[in-house]
Write the structure tokens for this entry.
Amino acid sequence: MTPYQFIERPSPFHPSADGKLLVHCLTPADLEAQKPSPEVCEWARSAGFKADTGSLLLLQGPDGQLAGALFGLGAEPQDQPFIAGKLARSLPAGTWMLSGDALPPERLVLGFGLGGYSFDTYKTAKPLEASLAVLDGADAAAFERGLAAVFLARDLINTPTNDMGPQRLEEVFRALAAHYGAEATSIVGEDLLAQNFPLIHTVGRASAQAPRLLDMRWGRKGARKVTLVGKGVCFDTGGLDIKPASSMLLMKKDMGGAANVLGLALMIMDAGLDVELRVLVPAVENSISADAFRPGDIYRSRKGISVQIDNTDAEGRLVLADALAYAAEETPDLMIDMATLTGAARVALGPEVPPFFTDDEDLALALSKASQAEDDPIWRLPLFKGYEKDIRSRAADITNAPGGGMAGSITAALFLKRFAGGARSWVHFDIFAWSATDKPQTPIGGEAQAIRALFHHIASLA
């Protein structure tokens, strides 16, 4: 079974190059060098085509029929490596092939695929019109799994919470496991207390849908242990420290960490990497009711660390704390958590560059190299020990919400670090999981971040 069967989307790739139409992807320098031919360049000049970034010119043959296209990459194509995403939404129906050497072929192909995404679950679906012929010698399966992973993450994030609460997220989790022959289990409701997951239960108990911890296992026993933990807060009202209405508009995306680790898990399983994979998702809804947890409450975590609740809107780190402690009990070789955790991360690096935190210098270097190799931006921020004093509490071991408003992304990471001990190597990603602007490879909406870089690194280990 292909990943596209799981996500129930048509593949943008065509299995044959028969009858293909060629898109020449050009820079202004290419036109000056008479590429692809003097005749075509003369036609381009007469039509006013200058190979500006994202410009498109359709070519006609002598019979007046469509004969191909010219696509502008601009003078600095490396600045927008996935600009070919515009083609997926602008080319006429047909099977196309991309040609040009200003960008690596894999960037052109992946950009085309990413740009073809649309979230139309609640609309009359439009058929995919332009498709891309499989390139000779290209690993079509690798492109398809990469796109399927991104599209899965985007679909999960874009789906509103009335259709993507904790119960539905568990159904998708189990379906992904079944698709790849993995084992999936869950701990739900009061069983969380019985099995010592008090913080997950605390955050999710006010919702009409019971909180739960989802657990997936796949791969060869004895292989390198890779554990993924994703924040699955399906909606965050802020709890009793309620968010203003404007801040709640995007809170369906607060399970973006879970969506991203599921996309990453899809790639790992589809590629058949030789790892022992585990995926943990604490799936909850931070709601308001008579049973909601309160500011000033103190709870003891799975690890035994007591936590004072100084803000009920800092709930993500609470559910992750129990999940990370549970994951670390098995001493994974690599433990990765992903979460839409802090606005401070967006203030520091903006929406497109997720920060990551780790004490493992070798891992940090490897992830930075993987980021560059995949054009998947990430940036390391420090686990600065000087800020550990800020998460201390007078009445408990630590607080979930330090005062002062400074270094919020770092103090959140330091909070999580308290629960990650036991893993041989741990890294935390504070992602936005959303594109606020329409880009060639990304429409406005849910977004996968860092998973291509992470897959690159995990594949090198396996």
Notes: The chain has a mean pLDDT of 95. The two ends are 22 Å apart (CA to CA). The CA atoms of residues 219 and 270 lie 11 Å apart.
